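SAMPLE LOG
Freezer: B-3
Tube label: C17
Construct: single chain, 436 aa
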Amino acid sequence: MPAFPEIDKIRYEGPDSRNPLAFRWYNADELVEGQTMREHLRFSVVYWHTFRGTGSDPFGAGTMVRPWEDGTDSVENAIRRARVAFEFIEKLGAPFYAFHDRDVAPEGATLAESNRNLDRVVEVLKQEQQRTGIRLLWGTANLFSNPRYLHGAGTSCNADAFAYAASQVKKCLEVTKELGGVNYVFWGGREGYQNLYNTDMKRELDHLARLLHLAVDYARQIGFTGQFLIEPKPKEPTKHQYDSDAAACLNFLRAYDLLDHFKLNLETNHATLAGHSMMHELDYAGMQGGLGSIDANTGDLLLGWDTDQFPTDLYLTTQCMLVILKYGGLAPGGVNFDAKVRRESFEPIDLFHAHVGGMDAFARGLKIAAAIRADGELDALLRERYRSWDTGIGAEIEAGRADFNALEQYMLAKGEIDANRSGRQEMLENLINRYL
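STRUCTURE (predicted):
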């Protein structure tokens, strides 16, 4: 019996539609810069918030109404949930999904039992993927929820916790390969510290790098060719997480000879917590060849924690797509809705409203970004701002042909620099507004 019998497949009806369960901007087959929207955006639905979220918070129990749940953490319930998940994703029209191992199958009393539980559910996931054509964007191991990881997983002071984490990653890599996953993500939920008095930071970072190298080696051994990703986040639940932002992650990967194997999975709410904009994080990763995928959400700027709200701000989605187009797209990554409906939005239909809105916001951001790029005015203004570097002394500096002596002689002869020109920030902001 369908879990959403009252919902038909969500369809594109155009900007004039007043139907809240129709796309106004996301037309999957529409061409933008030579690719379809489907290919540009590669939308993915997350298993954890969408199908495991309860609406609980530190001040109250869960509020979500999920008729397909029977209140148990059994394998049978997990199998039923998997079929519901694919019904939802199929009706939504998203091409991908993503999961943690413990999202899709219950943890057992032992590692062996957990693996058996996962295998049983994976069989159903495989059937549903074959039935619908929906693919796995990425898998990942939950190395943060169980109390065994209270000191971290790869960075734990307890070597047994490291060994258990490695075993969990091994199994999740096998499952991700079996399901045809095109990426594998590491998010260091507890890979950080609360207190430096009891922390050997170098040793912990060495151990984290060892875990990642082991994963790379094992992927090669089993023939997994997907892209490895790291997801930056600065804090919460730890005081400081080692994967704090794009710069910290790329520095870590470079220091431990992992840069050839990993890119970044960037999230808006995490960028905010790090004191950056998502545009900053995307551009920093992109310019270093590290842009891999994004978790599409947003946070409330009045709140200081990770609220994981669905993205509806067109400035945000336009900025994201401007940078993503600039660096040639996200594939094999995608736009993954790591977002949850609000505690007060507890009915199953609210899941559709949330995802339809997020997909439309990114589709419109894509169209706006493409229009800005096609007009070329923004690029022309940027080139004009840096024109002094294209010829003369600027070109000499960039080519590495000007040392301190040459630069000193240049300025002694010239006397003073050419006059600075206005940055025209307000004009540029007004320019962007023209497209919205």
